[in-house]
Specification:
42% of the residues are buried. This protein is α/β, with parallel strands linked by helices. Strand 20 and strand 21 form a beta hairpin. The strands form 8 sheets. Strands 10-11-9-12-15-8-16 form a 7-stranded parallel beta sheet, with helices on both faces.
């Protein structure tokens, strides 16, 4: 009997076996790995992907038979290897990983295009000049009715009359996306010596064949994008069928890069992220698997696209925490990009001005080729960075900008230049509390504080999305008009800026004011065109953008990210502030950055002010090594949640009692998560720390197999966690 193991989109740890009917093989040839099939599961048919086909002489259980092989394209071998590896690495169900690779096929097909064509040699009963003109413009082609009317210079009624008379007929043509082939010689950029050398090394890495990882480490404004675009051009010159994937951490960054790629190669790349309409995503998926699409720019989920000739992956801003997916399937896009390149035998470029410590460690260890761009491109120079000690320059009560920063903004305005005020905190105020009883307003069934938004007049939970109108009475003690806003958000800083500089054109850039890609692009374009004088922004404006007139960056609260017990707090703060200050002086005007801080002696801030990244990295690496934390050790988190607090408590205790004996490994917890209540679900966490050479996944599998988790409790495994909430 021939049996196929089929991956189905369910949270089960392995494939399901089905009998392969002889008639199925006779009709369409032998079933193979990657084929898509319809299989019975209970009373319904479900789509699955064949992971293996094998012969067996018999079975002690009766297998159900595959219903049919689907007409959709099979997943390429590299994709199958990748989704199965990703499932093992993240301890996720392999069928759910395979379903992610099929996501484009779940989207509806675009509506067929309606066109008209001539019916044989039929002629109209009355040949007017307008009708004759329509038939001459059409010829033997098929055209959309509106286009035909415009081409003939007539009204749409003339075309409709010919259709009604049977001279023309309407046909429907399936919409198929056409992706023009990029021309590597269309508009090559003028590169400096470091850029050219890096591009050559990266292109040679691809042409040499096999897995080749690169760290493209360049200061802000050094031209990393031009360097890797030149490498892509050389790859396409050598192999016009090569496929390249470029990953970005934010949707807002895609349009600018797409425009640069279109200008460089004379053809726009495909786009893949949640902001792309589902029918278009299906077209991209089908074009990728057919080899009709060379370059894709997308978010982390683009890693699962069915490339058939993937030669190069670029992870731009590789340090960015947005590459970590926290909901549903939990994975890190950067790490999976390296894995996919290894599986496909491709090259991977990790590009950043502030590389993650994990990537730097791999480069220092010789695992990655380390390419450096140490100076800004052209005449631009790095901005001067100064620390403003708020103990000596304390802002006035209920204000947030110190006098030196105010003076700098005024000077910048007088020169006709732009200012960016950076505060990574959305809304108007992060906390609303009652002066009478001290109650802090939180979202229902959640420990998260409500953030005040003055633009909408509402209090919002940024964790769950809950919002409510600001109440007049304290919900705890009932006191009237006792609620006060505590601390600044970007809206509150903008309010202060408008009072100080009423003549300035001021705007706020955050995920609230620019909630989608279109509005973000519009705001970025206004800033680029000089239509904004002062931009108050969160991290949405701190990465990847190039504003030629921006010469001053003011960081309102440089200490913000240093608070809390996150092991990556210092690293993230350094990266974010380096990226934010790096927006200044990127053209021919020198820039400067002023960082307001209560702790100017902090190592992160002194390293930034001195421009000494190496000193910061060395100190941070030493601390990680002493504690055997990443990159010198490995971490995994287990998060339990349930509406039943007792069930969570019991499951956590059961797990604690079932920990296997293991060397060079510790388990911490169980303990309440910092956000112990989210959406009505109680949460507990356990944290595993292991030495690098310990097989952490094998330990986790052995451990979890010892405990039966009740259906009311959700258990999530997060390998290499980035969030500790």
């Amino acid at each position: 009997m021939k049996v196929a193991s089929v991956l189905i989109p369910l949270p089960v740890p392995e494939a399901f076996d089905y009998e392969v009917p002889e008639a199925l093989s006779l009709a369409n040839g032998d079933l193979a790995r990657g084929d898509q099939v319809a299989v019975p599961l209970g009373p319904r048919l479900i789509r699955g992907v064949v992971s293996e086909v094998f012969e067996t002489t018999g079975s002690n259980r009766r297998l159900k038979a595959i219903d049919s092989r689907l007409d959709d394209p099979p997943l390429p071998a590299g994709v199958m290897d990748f989704v199965e590896w990703a499932g093992r690495w993240t301890l996720s169900a392999p069928g759910e990983m395979a379903a992610t690779a099929l996501k484009g096929l779940r989207a509806p097909r675009p509506r067929p295009e309606r066109r008209v064509r001539r019916v044989g040699e039929r002629s109209p009963s009355r040949a007017t000049p307008a009708r004759t003109g329509v038939l001459e413009a059409l010829g033997d082609r098929a055209m959309p009715p509106a286009d035909l009317a415009r081409a003939a210079g007539v009204s749409s009624g003339v075309v409709k009359g010919l259709i009604d008379e049977g001279v023309l007929e309407i046909i429907e043509i399936a919409a198929e996306a056409a992706f023009d082939r990029p021309d590597p010689d269309h508009a090559p950029a003028a590169l400096n010596g470091d850029q050219a050398a890096s591009a050559t090394a990266m292109a040679d890495g691809v042409s040499g064949g096999g897995f080749r990882p690169f760290l493209l480490d360049g200061v802000t404004g050094s031209g990393k994008t031009e360097a890797y675009l030149e490498a892509i051009a050389r790859v396409l010159r050598a192999d016009p069928a090569a496929q390249i994937l470029i990953l970005l951490p934010e949707i807002a960054l895609t349009q600018a890069l797409i425009e640069r790629i279109a200008a460089r190669f004379g053809a726009a790349p495909a786009e893949w992220h949640s902001g792309v309409a589902p029918p278009r995503r299906r077209q991209v998926w089908e074009a990728v698997v057919a080899g009709r699409c060379n370059i894709v720019v997308g978010a982390r989920s683009a890693l699962f696209l069915p490339f058939v000739n993937l030669c190069l992956i670029v992870v731009d801003e590789e340090h960015d925490g947005s590459f970590k997916q926290e909901e549903g399937l939990v994975y890190h896009g950067r790490d999976l990009a390296v894995a996919r390149a290894r599986i496909e035998g491709a090259a991977v470029i990790l590009a950043s001005a502030t590389p993650s410590l994990e990537t730097l460690w791999n480069a220092q260890s010789g695992r990655y080729d380390w390419l450096r761009l140490g100076a800004r491109h052209g005449t631009a120079v790095l901005p001067d960075i100064a620390l403003l000690d708020l103990r000596q320059n304390t802002p006035d009560p209920q204000t947030w900008l110190s006098q030196p920063l105010r003076l700098a903004i005024g000077e910048t305005l007088a020169r006709g230049e732009q200012t960016l005020l950076f505060l990574n905190r959305r809304g108007y105020a992060p906390v609303v509390l009652c002066r009478a009883c001290g109650h802090r307003l939180t979202a229902p069934d959640t420990d998260s504080w409500l953030v005040e938004h003055r633009y909408t007049g509402r209090l919002v939970c940024h964790l769950t999305g809950f919002s409510m109108a600001r109440p007049k009475l304290c919900p705890s003690c009932g006191a009237e008009d006792s609620l006060v806003s505590v601390g600044p958000g970007v809206e509150r800083v903008e309010e202060e800026v408008r009072q100080l500089f009423p003549e300035a054109r001021t705007a706020v850039f955050s995920s609230d004011t620019a909630p989608d890609a279109r509005s973000a692009r519009a705001l970025i374009q206004k800033m680029t065109d000089g239509e904004i004088d002062i931009l108050v922004a969160t991290q949405a404006a701190a990465k990847g953008h190039n504003f030629p007139r921006l010469t001053l960056v003011g960081v309102v609260d440089a200490d913000l990210g240093l608070r809390g017990g996150d092991l990556r707090a210092a690293e993230r703060t350094y990266q974010l502030l380096a990226q934010a200050t790096g927006r200044a002086g990127r053209a021919d005007r020198p820039g400067r950055a002023l960082l307001q801080t209560w702790t100017p002696e902090h190592p992160v801030l002194t390293a930034l002010a001195a421009g000494d990244r190496d000193a910061f990295v060395e100190a941070e690496m030493a601390e990680r090594e002493a504690a055997s934390l990443p990159p010198y050790g490995r971490l995994a988190a287990i998060i339990l949640s349930s509406e039943n607090a007792a069930a969570v408590e019991k499951t956590a205790n059961d797990l604690a009692q079932a920990i296997p004996n293991a060397e060079r490994l510790e388990v911490y917890g169980p303990a309440d998560a910092p956000l112990a209540l989210v959406r009505g679900r109680r949460r507990k966490r356990l944290l595993v720390r292991a030495d690098r050479d310990v097989n952490l996944q094998a330990f986790l599998r052995a451990w979890l197999q010892r405990v039966k988790v009740p259906g009311s409790v959700r258990l999530t495994v997060d390998v290499d966690p980035y969030s500790f909430l």
